[in-house]
């Protein structure tokens, strides 16, 4: 610590110049002291050269627009162009429009199947759900798409492994558990039982 030659207060060496200028600007000794101190190394606090940053409103707007465009582009690229397990469709079921009721049971408890499986901002796939009722909508548009889809296709769209069910029924009749069971129209009802299934 240094001491101010005028008021004797303790001052850090690098702050003494500023102290003199701020506290004793009119003292008769100040100009001489300042002159002398300026010649001494370490008296002036190392300060990064700072230029006042001037940002206009226009620049802010342009940066925000660029960020927004980048976000929208990223969203469209990742959701729109990424290939989906099944084709994107019109939603009017031009080839056919069927519904199969799917029930999933995990350790004896019904599992809620999410709404909007197979539906994104840019694509509705041939197999999808609209609500949490477990109703699978099957809506191919073209003759090429108009095949019979399977419960395994639905799990693909959902992004879930089919796994190893312990039991499976179709319209109340037990069948060999497997993903190749077809999805037909109402009143088609498939029940899949698992020891443990996490939706
Ligand atoms: Zn439907
Ligand atoms: Zn639909």
Number of helical elements: 4
Q: Categorize the overall geometry.
A: elongated
Average pLDDT confidence is: 90
Q: What's the end-to-end separation, in Å?
A: 68 Å
Summarize the helix and strand pattern as letters. Answer: EEHHHEEEEHEEE
Bound molecules: zinc ion
Strand content: 15-25%
Please mark out the parts with pLDDT under 50 across 5 or more consecutive residues, or reply none.
none
Descriptive account of the structure:
With 199 residues, this protein is an alpha+beta fold. Among the domains are: 38 residues, no CATH class; 97 residues, no CATH class. Helices cover 26% and strands 18% of the residues. It is built from 4 helices and 9 strands, in the order ββαααββββαβββ. Strands 3, 4, 5, 6, 7, 8 and 9 form a 7-stranded mixed sheet that branches. A hairpin with a 6-residue loop joins β5 and β6. α1 packs antiparallel against α2. The mean pLDDT is 90. One zinc ion (ZN) binds next to loops.
């Amino acid at each position: 610590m240094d001491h101010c030659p005028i008021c004797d207060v303790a001052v850090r060496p690098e702050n003494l110049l500023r102290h003199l200028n701020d506290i004793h600007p009119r003292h008769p000794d100040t100009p001489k002291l300042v002159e002398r101190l300026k010649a001494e190394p370490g008296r002036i606090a190392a300060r990064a050269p700072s230029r006042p940053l001037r940002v206009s409103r226009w620049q802010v707007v342009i940066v925000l627009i660029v960020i927004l465009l980048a976000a929208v582009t990223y969203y469209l690229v990742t959701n729109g162009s990424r290939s989906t397990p099944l084709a994107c469709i019109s939603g009017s079921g031009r080839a056919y429009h069927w519904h199969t009721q799917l029930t999933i049971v995990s350790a004896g408890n019904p599992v809620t199947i999410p709404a909007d499986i197979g539906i994104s901002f840019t694509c509705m796939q041939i197999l999808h759900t609209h609500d949490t009722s477990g109703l699978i909508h099957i809506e191919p548009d073209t003759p090429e798409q108009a095949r019979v889809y399977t419960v395994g296709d639905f799990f693909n769209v959902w992004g879930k492994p089919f796994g190893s069910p312990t039991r499976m029924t179709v319209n109340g009749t037990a069948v060999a558990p497997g993903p190749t069971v077809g999805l037909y129209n109402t009143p088609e009802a498939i029940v899949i039982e698992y020891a443990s299934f996490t939706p």
